[in-house]
């Protein structure tokens, strides 16, 4: 299994050398709000605030999100084998996120978040080789992939880093699991060097049997999307010290 993600630059400008504060659009909770309505709303509000970027943190917009490359290689020597590169793509739909639950363990720096997304769409170029049951998969051109009505769980772990007498968080790992998917629709143009009849047949087979196709590529997609959120989280946590992440107790 291989899932490699290359993101376009998500931050801009010179390095921030002083401790930054969360934007006013972010909701702060108390340190003792380990699992409650405040934390759930704070996470959702933060994700939505990132849609158009956060200039004060030099974070560029994430919806749409430019993705340079996602490489997928799954199912070697299996009935379904996929070697797929998604290139120069644009990912949209993150703004529609709804947080189902959120909790954290501050002493261990562990954060657990479950979200629901109505739709996530990726449009770009592709280069594919493989097989789907009895059908070959081969083509290069434009593609459109849509994941509909699904949930995702994020388990994020961090460590403390001290900079200029302030404590910052550094993401050490993130595990993402996608589940309860309602549909996965794909359209690969120019399959088999533009053979429309064979291309239409292949796209129909993939969509009629989307659960099997999704099941094969899911691990790589989970890894790639996990990398997206780890990257975004690190941009924020590397600029905002822990003391500025929570509501003041004074």
From TrEMBL:
Gene Ontology biological-process annotations: circadian rhythm
GO cellular component, as recorded: extracellular space
Sorted UniProt keywords: Biological rhythms, Signal
Span of the signal peptide: 1-19
Protein's UniProt keywords contain Transcription regulation: no
Keyword set includes Transferase: no
InterPro entries: Haemolymph_juvenile_hormone-bd (IPR010562), To_sf (IPR038606)
Family: Belongs to the TO family.
Protein name: Takeout/JHBP-like protein
Species annotation: Diploptera punctata
